[in-house]
Amino acid sequence: MKRILTGILSAALLLTCAACGSDSPKPTETTAAPTEATTQAAPNASIQALLEKAVRQAKFGGVVYITQNGQVLAQSATGTANAETGKENTLDTQFCVASVSKQFCAAAVLLLQEQGKLHTTDTLSTYFDNYAYGDKLTIRHLLTMRAGVPDHLAADTETGRVAYTPDEWGFTINQNKSMAENRIAVRDWILEQPLHFDPDAQYEYSNANYFLLAQIVEQAAGMPYEDFVRQQIFEPLGMTHSGFIHELWDSPDAAKPNPPDDPLYTLGNAGGITQGAGDIVSTAADIDKWLTSLRTETLLSKDAYAEMKQDYSPGSGYGYGLMLHLYGGIGHTGMIASYTSFAFTNPQTGYNLFAVTNDYNAAFGDITDLAGHVINGALQ
Questions:
Q1: How far apart are CA 353 and CA 345, in angstroms?
Q2: Which of 65, 179, 251, 282 has the fewest Cβ atoms nearer than 10 Å?
Q3: Does 15 score more than 60 pLDDT?
Q4: C-alpha distance from residue 322 to each of 36, 257, 281, 319, 346 (Å)
């Protein structure tokens, strides 16, 4: 798999280090060809020019958005949002952010805990009747990826992709059934599977954990998961261009998958199989608002953030929907269907970085190769 985006992010994070240890300069006017970037705010001129050069050299199609303490340092929008119509990506294009969605699900759980409607130590028997492991598993086990629940979207280790054909899944969903019916089919399959290990025995990444967490949020909140996230997270943060796959499927501002026939994204529209784990669609500016709230700790209580950012698996560095030792900062990577994303914030330096593509051919492979030597040197 090509590692084009890896190079882009390496360059982008190299560029941000130019501002390390000094006051960021005031924004200056820059101009760029419409096919290279759509500029919404005046970035740092030198960093912007270098980012655009890196984007051209890599022939990258997607969005890169870098800010420091609320000031745009560099931004780029390239490639096509819709390969069939030729519509270009802009900074306003809505992308599926894949597993970056997990931190929103984790925040929803913590908001409900603050409201006294659940606790992370609750056992799953409270929410799923007759679950064989319901008395052993807790919400925290799901949040920390220490539950042993098999992944319903298990990755193909040969290609790194998570999208299989529907026939390869152990559950049946289709576009003729309601979303509720399809989600029940997925949930029932997950709850029927034996655990890979005893609860809390080890760390193992599984999308099924966050699918179940979304179901728990619905029960505790007494409303659809999507409505709770919208009311409690999107609206307070002003994320007015964010939503969910099934809501934005036909939006003219949403980037379509390339290739367009990937079953995981297509069925995700009707089946909701990525709920809680990879279902959010958003823009660069909206994700930047979320990253800022995560960095400045403005949405949740201090105690909730401490719980969210605790390392529950030394060696893996995973908290609640967060990678905690991500090149000196915190964030998450994402890959689903043809979408690859990276959301990063550094509380010490004030940097936020979001990068995303809808083009499978421009996706990076192993996110842990994301220019670690550069980022470690620049942002520590």
A1: 6
A2: 251
A3: no
A4: 31, 25, 18, 5, 13
Phi (first) and psi of residue 346, to 5 degrees: -125, 110
d(CA 223, CA 212): 15
Three-state secondary structure call for residue 33: coil
> 63 - beta bridge partners?
77, 356
Q: Which of 103, 182, 184, 190 is nearest to 149 (CA)?
A: 190
pLDDT of 252 strictly over 60: yes
* Cα 240 from Cα 285, distance rounded (Å): 10
Note the pLDDT tens digit of each residue in 38-49: 444 557 777 777
Residues 377, 372: Cα–Cα separation, whole Å:
8
Euclidean distance between CA atoms 335 and 260, whole angstroms: 15
Q: 104: closest CA among 245, 246, 250, 293?
A: 293
Matching residue, tokens 């970035």: 43
Give the DSSP H/E element, type plus range, for residue 334. Answer: strand 329-336
Q: Which amino acid is at 110?
A: L
